[in-house]
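HUMAN: You are asked to prepare a plain-text protein record giving the amino acid sequence and the backbone structure tokens, both parts labelled.

ASSISTANT:
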Amino acid sequence: MLKKIFNPLVTFTALALLMQGCIKDHCTQTCSYFVPVYKTSEEVRANIKSNAPREMERTGKLYIRGNYIFLNEIDKGIHIIDNSVPTSPKNVAFVDIPGNMDMAVKGNTLYADAYTDLITLDIADPLNAKTTNIVENAFPFRQYYGTFYADTSKVIVDWVKRDTTVNMDCGNSGFFGIDFNKSEVFMYNDVAGLSNYSNDGRSLSSSKSVSPFGAGGSMARFAIAGNHLYSVTLSDLNVFEISAPQNPSFISKINIGWNIETIFPFHQKLFIGSTTGMYIYGISNGSNPVKEGQFLHVQS
């Protein structure tokens, strides 16, 4: 007589296969994304002037001229602060410059970047600062990390944060496979990566992201020496002639290396810092910087 043998392993396997065919896990993921707010170049340029003061939120670099402080609001513009009474500075005006990260001042002229353009401002009367010249395409296009592609025919003036809940595969810990319009929406998981980079891709090692604005530190990327304005991007040195301060002209672009961070002029030299060392360029001929030396150090 044959006996039936109960095998728990076989039974468990059969039940697992049966359940897999009948039940499908359902998971959702809540995430944030940002939608850019665009304006035309004409609208933006018409508003690059002294306007009503605004609250300081994400400040960057600053310049001091006489009794005034010019303080960058990252990617937004420049605060003008009356510092005639140093113990009680007053926020008196704001110059709207979308995409602004850097600036330099010579006399009554302030130079600032606006994404790809170099803006020249007359600040003889800081409360009535006005645009006098624009050099187009002086700098590289802003690099965004992830899936976002900006409409380069317009200018991003702000970002609107939105939250959403989406259905997703329970085994997927990210947002891959979600169908978002790449020309309009920037996913939060990509924003986390973007916040670690400046407008030219330089890593800033931020631990928290709050928006897809650019990020900047205190290191200068603009420098003025004599009748020349110098600026550095991730890999290049840009040279501008400013003998006529209100009418700068682009002269040349010199490839330096990679991961360039900052520039400082001193005694007919430009000291250009990177994550791996210092480049030294002679500017006895200001229009034609010449490499004179390099100092390498451990990457930092």
About this structure: Residues 187-218 have pLDDT under 50 and may be disordered. The longest strand covers residues 155-168. Helices lie at 8-22, 41-46, 188-194. The CA atoms of residues 220 and 272 lie 10 Å apart.
